[in-house]
Every structure is written in C-alpha cells, then in structure tokens.
Amino acid sequence: MSDGATLIQLLTALTQPDTNTIRQAEAALKPVLKNPASMITLWQVIADTSQPIAVRHVGAIILRKRLTAHYSNFDAQTKLEWQKNVLNVLASEQQRPVRSGLIGVAASLAQVEQSATQPYLEFLTAAANEANHQARELCFLLLSEMTDTIGLHWKEHIPSLMSFFTHVLNNPQENTVVHKAAVQAIGQLMAFWADEPEIESLAPLLPILLQVAGNSSVGQADDDFLSTVLDVLYELAYSPAPSLSQYMPITVEFALTCLVTQQLEMRVRDSAALVIATTAEAKSKAFGRHEALLGAVLDALFTLVQNSNDSAAGALFESNPAWKADLEGDAGDVDDGDMDSPTETSMAQGTLDMIACEVPKKFVWPACMKRCMERLESSDPNARKAGIACLGVIAEGCTEPLTMALHDVMPRVFAAAQDPAPQVRECACFCLGQISEHCQPDILQYSSQILPIVFNLLDDNNVAVQATSCYVLEMFCERLEPEAVRPVLDSLVRKLAQMLEVSTKRSVQEMAVAALAATAVAAEEEFSPYVEGVANLMTRLMQLQDPNLFSLRGRALECMGHMAIAVGRDTFRPYFPQTMQSAMEGLATDSTDLQEFAYAVFANLAKVMKEEFAPALPDLVPHLVKIIDMDEGEIEQAPNSKDDNLAGLDDSDDEDEDGQYVLHVRTALLEVKKGAITALGEMAAHTGNSFCPHLESCMVVLQKAAGNWHPLIKAEAADAFPSMIIPLIAAHHNGEIKWTKADLGGANPMSQVTATLVQAVLTEEVALMKDEDKTTVGKACEAVQGVIELCGPHALSPVLNDALQNSHAIISKSAPCQTADELYGDIGEFGDEDDDHDSFTQAACDLIGGFCRVMGHHFKQYLHQFLPPILEFTKPSRPASDRSMAVGCLSEIAQELEGAIAEQWQPVFMPAVLNGLADEDVNVKRNAAFCAGICCEHLKAQVLGDYPKMLQLLGQNFSLDTSASESACACVDNSAAAVARMIMASPENVPIDQVLPVFLTALPLKVDMTENQTVYQCLIGLLQMNHPEAVSRKEDIKRILTEATHESSKVDADTKGMLVQAMQSLH
Hints:
Blueprint: H1 3-14, H2 19-33, H3 37-47, H4 53-71, H5 76-92, H6 96-113, H7 118-128, H8 133-145, H9 147-153, H10 158-169, H11 176-192, H12 199-202, H13 206-218, H14 223-237, H15 242-245, H16 248-260, H17 266-282, H18 284-289, H19 291-307, H20 315-318, H21 321-328, H22 336-339, H23 344-358, H24 361-376, H25 381-393, H26 399-404, H27 406-417, H28 422-438, H29 447-457, H30 463-477, H31 482-485, H32 489-502, H33 506-523, H34 531-542, H35 550-567, H36 569-572, H37 576-587, H38 592-609, H39 617-629, E1 633-637, E2 661-665, H40 667-686, H41 695-706, H42 711-720, H43 726-732, H44 752-768, H45 774-791, H46 793-796, H47 800-811, H48 816-824, H49 827-830, H50 839-855, H51 863-872, H52 880-897, H53 905-917, H54 922-939, H55 947-957, H56 966-985, H57 992-1001, H58 1012-1024, H59 1028-1031, H60 1034-1045, H61 1053-1066
Antiparallel strand pairs: 1-2
C-alpha cells in the first residue's frame, strides 16, 4: 500500500466514532508524522477534492498541529510555496469544514512567520475586495484566527486593516455572514489590544460594530455570535484607553438590550449582565454620572426581579443546592448541573449588587431608593417583592446612606414582613437579614420590633420564609446585648429547637442551628440554662455520617463553639471533650466544609478554654501548619480545544508529555487555609507559654502565607502574625511588656527573643501595607498598631521610617492598593470628588493615632506631612464616613500629643473642630465635640478666645433626638464631655449659669461610658467649689447621681465609688 493510501486509511480511522480505533490510528500516525516528507503527502490528501470531507477536515487539523514543527527546517523558497499553496487552496475551497481546517493551517504558518509576508497581504487584500461574499467572509475569518499574530507582529499594517473593517462595517448592503465575521475579527483584535496604545486606532469602530451586531443578531437571537461580542465588551470594560470611555453608554445599552431579550439563551443574557456589572465596576464614576443610563439599567433590573417567578431571597439559597431543592419542594429531583445556571433574578440581583457596591453612593442610593419605595407602595405583590428584595440587595453596597435612612426605611420593611403575599414576606426576611448584617450597630435599636416579627415568621408555612427568618436571627443577634434578647429568649430557644427537630428541610435545619448559635452569643451567660438541652441536640448532629449532611454537622460544631463563647469556660467545660473529639473527627473526612467548621471551633474553644486547650497543641499545630503550607494550585491536563479530539497528535507528544497542562486553583482549599490560619492565631493568643515550642514552625508558614498570591490568605496572615508575640510575653514578661510613652532612648523592655520575633512580625506587616489588596493593607495597619501599642516604642523604632512612609502613602491615596485602581478606573477623569469611603483608610488613620500614642511628642516633627492629607478627608464633598474618620484622627493626635499641637490649633484643629461641630452628620459632630474638649483640656489659655464659638455649636448638639439612633446619643454624650473639659480647663470663661442646665439634661450618659469620669469629675468639682449655679440645682444633681450609682447603671465601680462619696456631701 502506498504512503498516500496508508495515510488516507489512518485519517479515515480518526473520523470513526470509536475511541479504540482513534487511539490505534493516532499511535500509528505518530512515527509517520515525524518525517517531514509526510507533510507533502498529508497536503495532497487535503487538496484532493475527491476525498471525503471528513478525511480532508481531519487532515487539515493534523497539518495545523504538525507542520509548524517541520517548517523551521524548510528553506525560504519552500516556506513561500507552502504559504501560497495553502492560501490558494483556501481561496477556492467550497466545503466549510475543510475551509475551517485550512484557516487554522494558514493562521499557524502566519504565527511562525510573525511578520506579514507578501502572500498573506495579497490574499487578504484580494479576498476583502472580492465580489463573492464568501471570499469576503473568508478574509475576516482568517483575520480572526490570526488575532494573536496581528496583535503582536502586524502593528504597522493597522491602516490597511482599518480600511478592510471600515469598508465592510459601513456598508449596510453587506451580507450578514460577512458582517458577523468582520465584527468577530475586529472585536477580538480590540480585546487583544485593550490595554495597548493600538486600541486608540480601533476604538472609533466600536459604535458601528455594536450597530451591526445589534441589527444582525439580537433580533434573530444569534446566541453564539452575541456571546462573542459580549466577551469582547467584557475585555474592553477595563481598558484604560480614553477613546473608549466615550462609548461606555452605548456599550451598556447594547448589553442591556441583550439582557432583557428573552429569546436569547440564558448564558448570553448572563454575559450581558456581566458586561454591565463590570462596566459599573471599572467606570463607576462615569456610570453614576450618566443619570439616564443608570436609571435605564436599574429599571430593567428591578423589572426582571419583579416579573420572574424565581425566588428573590438573594444568594442565600442560590449557592446551596440542597437549600434550593427545599424551595422547589423535591430534593430528590434536582439536577446539580442546573444549580449553577443563571436565572433572571440571580442575574438582576448580582448586577444590582455590583452597581450598589461600586457606583458612588451619591448617584446610586437615591436612584435605587426611589424605585424601591415606588414598588413597596404598589398593589401588585410582585412589585412589592421586587422593591423589598432589591432593598436587601443594595444593603451591602449602600450601607452608609441606608444606615442614615433607617428611620424611614424600617417601617416599610416591617410592613413587608407581614405582607399577605409569601413572596414578599420571604424577601422581607432576606432584606431584614441584610440590614441586620450591614447596618450594625444602629439596627439594634429596632430589636423590640424586629424580634417579635421574626419570631412570628418562624411559624410561616413557607419554607423559604422559615429559613430566611432564621438567617435574620443569626445576623441580628450576633451583636445584640443580653437585655435586648431577654424578653424572648426562652420562647425563641424553644421554637428554634422545635424547628430543628420537626423540620425535614435542610435549609431550615441549618439556619435554625445558626440562629441558636447567634442567640447564645447575644444572651451570653443568660444562655446557661439552655446549654445542656442545646448541646444534646448538637451532639446528635455532630455524629452525622452522611456526606450530604456534613454542612448540618458543621453548623452543629459551630453552634457549640458559639455557646462556649457565650457562657464561658466553667459552664462549657463538661462539653469541651466531646466537642473537641467531634471536631477532630471532622478533620479526618474529605469535606472541606467540615474542616472549615472544625477550624472555627478550634479558634473559639482556644479563646474560651485558654490553657486547658494546651494539651491539644502538639497534635493540632503541626496539622494546621501542614494545611497552611499546602499548595492550593495543582497541575491538571488542559481541556481539549473546540476542534481538538486529536490531542494525542500534538507536537508535545514527540517526547514523554501527554498534552498541555494548566494550573487549577482549588478555591475550597483557600477557605480551609484561611480557617487554619485563624485557628493558629487564636491558639497562640490564648494558650499562653504552652504555645512557645510551636512559634518557629508557625512563623515560617505564616511568612509563606504572607507572600501568597490570594488576598484571602495574605489578609488572614496579617491578622494572625501579632498573636505569635503573645506566648513570648507570657513566658518572658509575666503577661505584659511595661513600656513608657515616647521613651526611645531608654532600656529596651523586651527580652532579646521577644524583640527578635516582634521585629520579624512588624517587618512582614509593614511590607503588607504596600500590598495591592485593600483588605490586606487594612489588616496590616491594624496589626502594626496592635503590636506597637502592646510592645512600645522600641518595637516601632526598627521599622519606623517604612511604617510612617507607608501610612502617609495610604492617607495620601498613593499606596499601591490605590494606584492599582487608578490604572483601569476613571479616577483620572473625575478625580476623587465622587469617591466613597474606603474602610481600610480608617485603619491607617487609627495607626497614626497609634504612632502618637507610642511616640508621644516625637511625632510632632511629622505633623506637617500628615495633617494636610488628613484634612483632605474633612472636605464637605467627602462622604460623612471620611469626614468623621479624619476628625477622629485629629482627636487622637490632639489627645496623645497634648500641648505639642499648639502651633497647629489655629491653622488646622480649630477650623476642623468648628466645621465638624456644624456638620450635618452626627458622627462627625461627635468626633468634633471630642476633639474640641481634648484641645481645650491640653491647650488651655491658647483656645479661650474660641470658647464662645465652640459652646454655641456644642449647645446645638444637646437638642438632637436621642431616640433616632445610638449615634445621636453618643454625640450628646461627647458634647457633654467636651463642655465638662472646657469648664474644668477654665470655668471663668464658661457662662455656667447658661451652660449647666443644658449640661445636666444630658446626664447620666447614655452610650459613651468612657466619658463618665470626665463629666462627673466636672460636676463634683463644681459642687466642691460651691458654685452657686450647681448649689441651686442640687436636687437635679442628686437625681443624676442616684441613677448613675444604681446597680443597673453601666458606670464603672471606681466612678460609682466617687459618686457615692459626692452624694453623701449633698445631704
């Protein structure tokens, strides 16, 4: 048999539907294809139109794979002939499968050549100008396949390519198939050059590209083509090219049209939603400023939620297949493959969540609230469902304005929670949970209304309402005080226990356990009578062996850990061994969820049991170190490409390799490692010097974790590092390092081993302050502050310059985590005028306060560098959180530097105080009041001239409605303390006859108990002076002191003792 006949026989075998036949043919072909002469034979088969189409198609695929390996050995003339032959046959080929294969061959040769050769330029020019539309289509199909080659090596030919694209796209008479091929080719090239200067040349084509794509595809529901276009738009969303910014509106409008077109496949609509969400993230300010566009998007998203029959309780059920099955009523009939499929509701809510989180609140909050309120007033239950569901969705992104609006919002939420329509009640529960999670602590003032409503909803007939009600309890109770939960504690525990025993729905069972855990945390020691009964329930659940029930088993473990935190070591001690055993058994399973729960339990039990946990360290710490040290990535064989069932014939198979490989990230392991790091930190922090033998191995693995590629791991490592110092302080310093403020030149109070570890920890943390992830940076700032306040000035000295420099960069908005945003966002175009508050900046400001606390007057030399960027945050255009943060930072500086800020009073502190006291936000007022008092206390005579202005503004704070929020109460408390400091600093400069009556109305203090000593010291001082105004108001003062010394009062014991003595002198 001839070589050609043998080759045809083997190619024919490769087209058969039998795996063994294909593998045998591949094995036989491998040695044949190593011979360069086989390429000619293979080409002859492909070019022979008498051969079966399938054989020629497979031949073209193999030629693309193998020709390039021999191509470099050909002489220049042979290479040129190959190019011409391939392109000539391609030009005349009528069979689309074969033509597709030949396009691949031509593209692979172009990739090897890199530069544009004459045959290619002539072919493309001729094809683009052919009268036959199939030839014109071929031109763009080849360009599309050559995207990488053109993007890397053909940049000098941009003008010629532009003429091809422009001519076709601007021709309304052009055949649809040519339009589609051109759109795909130009789109892929745009995506390739998205971050390159060349995108500026292609950007003007985007409007006509979208017009052509819309005209030829949306109405015809061409899903694959639209999916390609949307992929391009996604790639362009983050492009920094200025020329693309002007087309942001039409890009979003195109995606929005796709999103709402129900004839399109859900995957395409989901891609459209992703384009909108990504654009909102990348171009957040431009998106927000375009009022009409933002409104159109929100209208569409709200309408999708309103008209969809899917559950709108958010992601609570979406991420859990078993829970989702509860909603559908048949857990055994759910296809796991459908669980990840997008729905109209999930797409709309996901997009809305991104918009709420990324678009400046000054734009997105009023627009969303308008639509929520309109729908909540509707007679249509589905409209009310959408209104309350979307309010819950935006809670995370719009936390600050939502918290400020709780007074107006909560009555609507309570009404929705009692709506006759179950879908509205379900979403009201979800909304309550979101608000409870994100609007702490202000939401706690509604406990007397929320708890009875949620308690009633636990009896709802709707499974989703039951489970979501438990979720509300979990979120709400986590920070509730015992007195708030006391009225419903007994009935609540009994109801949740009953639900757990009676319900067969996994969602209800798991959330009931979570709600019990949160209730225990809220009740604290008052939960003690219920520990035995709840522990018996949890013990049964902790013994579950069905892998499908491991999440419920994990929740039971979690509940035991929370009960331990609530009731303390002595009460929980009988249940400690069983809980530890169950957690250890969880580590032996393959369930990452169960392992995660186990690590959380270890962290809580170490915190509660302290040195009694130490016997577990020799076994647990090496295990945790091993987990943290694991590589969360693994090499796996790459999936085959679209035409590549013949992976066995790749070039790489000439050696020992078997295909290409990719790095697969095991995301579940990331969460497990995070939990392991948390557990390690808590064990170090609470088991005393028993942890010392493990410090070396822990530091090594944490240092590796600090360099991890994933922010989740780096942030957790930053959180855990400081805990490594605690065991040495227990072992070498009797539990406390006694350091002196501003003492940089004296003897180091730390032992050598402690100092060495402290420097290693701070070196890691200061380096993490320069990370590109904001959460990690915030954690690192908190850690540096914690360590230097624990260990003193000698700990700070070795890293002082770097720590100061990194802190200054953060508050100046020039840190890597901030400049990374500028690269792809629209900060350069709009500045920081519309910026929202970045929570990690608060950590940097707190750290500045920490520097002052440790360095004392030595920080004065840096004030001229730090004060200007801090003042930038006090501008009226900044969010209230920024203004409050900045004034709070100034307060800490004033408190710690005392008289060292004297020269900065007039230019910096005085304007900040007066503007802050006049601010509309109570938290800014509160911090300004504290700052005013501190400055008066330390600067004394220097500020006397400003007393009248400060007293006038402080006086306005006393008329605040303290029932509106806890923040208002705190503002009044701090204002009272400020007045007290002013009186004590210079009583003759305060009109006490006018001030004292108002001052007394604020006592006893309601929230800020740290100011008790200040206000009562002032009050007692006035009495001791026999000040006539104080003497005339003895009865009012008696009443105040009686309340302050009552057993239910939160005034500390020392201050109560002082007040009791003062009361005796009043009789």
